[in-house]
Specification:
alpha/beta, Rossmann fold, ten-stranded mixed sheet, three-stranded mixed sheet, 11 helices, 17 strands, 35% helix, globular, disordered C terminus
């Protein structure tokens, strides 16, 4: 069993919907559910018909049509509240993974990022309450803690929206929680695949924005397991934060290409030197659960049972940052994480058979 592996995944005969289901997380989440459970329906909700088509073909090749009888593919955007409300009819569990995530793109196109990440989050809450969905887990990012870029600010607003939504559910009983974790090794947009691509193309140097930069790292499988295991223990209103290792970006470059020099190109708009997942102010309401932390809601007007197995407060003045982390990633561990990361879905050509 890997880090954060769920112990009692109860998805049999459930109806599950994942927004942004054709993204890196959504695809791996679908794989995990199909191999571990027998849901009544597993719905992918996203706005790109080509990615949905490619995903259907890819899944059919690996699982066969019989295993995919529970799969549903809904076209729609989280910006569209009416469509989202229709899509969530009869759904038990929602995993909200849809977001605009590229930091420079968000800085240049702020209104687009706000419409998807903030107003889209409000639409998800509305649609879940309207349809009496039982459990909702929203994916966040380390950039939502003390944000310096627009992407992080929108995800902080999204986190607050989902946490506060528990106080709106009343006799509906819907429970909302958030998971917040760091950079996913091997995912689209991550620096590791960028370096690997440059190395494969014969690059003579690797671009580094700042030699002091550190980041948290997690694999896609670990991210999916973290969401699933957080779903098992959620009570509503928590922001779950995994205990994961850090690594300097210069060390990452050296692990991938020890003989290549690096070129410092300067920090991009909206970038931090170090990432933070729990601030000193958050620490006042943070519990240590062993393999993760849980930031408790500032106010909760609903019953919340204690965590099974107990939980203790973090120390006074605690913060969780990538540069002061107690766990650091070695070169060997990084390469192992990359080898475990699934390859991206192949983009099919027009000449490929249907």
């Amino acid at each position: 069993m890997g880090r954060f592996a769920p112990t009692n995944l109860d998805f049999d005969d459930k109806v599950i919907l994942v927004t942004g289901g054709t993204g890196s997380f959504g695809r791996r989440f679908v794989d995990a559910v199909l191999t571990r459970a027998k849901p009544r329906k597993l719905i992918v909700y996203s706005r790109d018909e080509l990615k949905q088509h490619e995903m259907q073909i890819d899944l059919a090749e690996r699982y066969g049509p019989d295993r995919l009888s529970a799969m549903r593919f809904f076209l729609g955007d989280v910006r569209d509240r009416e469509r989202l409300t229709l899509a969530l009819r009869g759904v038990d569990i929602v995993i909200h993974a849809a977001a605009l995530k590229q930091v420079p793109a968000a800085e240049y196109n702020p209104s687009e990022c706000i419409h998807t990440n903030v107003l889209g989050a409000e639409n998800v809450v509305w649609a879940c309450l309207t349809n009496r969905v039982k459990q909702v887990v929203a994916l966040s990012t380390d950039k939502a803690c003390n944000p310096v870029n627009l992407y992080g600010a929108t995800k902080l607003a999204s986190d607050k929206t989902f946490v506060a939504a528990n106080n709106l559910s009343g006799d509906i009983g819907t429970r909302f929680s958030v998971v917040r974790y760091g950079n996913v090794v091997g995912s689209r947009g991550s620096v590791a695949p960028l370096f690997q691509r440059l190395i494969a193309n014969g690059a003579r140097e690797l671009p580094i924005t700042d030699p002091r930069m550190t980041r948290f790292w997690i694999t896609l499988d670990q991210g999916v397991d973290f969401v699933l295991s957080s779903l098992e223990i959620m009570r509503g209103g928590e922001i779950f934060v995994p205990k994961i290792p850090s690594m300097k970006v210069t060390d990452l470059a050296a692990a991938l290409a020890p003989d290549l020099p690096v070129k410092v190109i300067g920090i991009r708009p909206g970038e931090k030197l170090h990432e933070m997942m729990i601030s000193v102010d958050d620490a006042r309401t943070t519990l240590d659960l062993g393999d993760r932390y849980a930031i408790e809601p500032a106010f909760a007007e609903y019953a919340r049972a204690p965590f099974a197995g107990g939980a203790g407060p973090v120390p006074e003045g605690f913060s969780y940052t990538s540069d002061s982390n107690a766990e650091w990633l070695t070169d060997g561990a990084l390469l192992a994480m990359l080898s475990e990361s699934p390859p991206p879905m192949r983009r099919r050509r027009a000449t490929d058979p249907e």
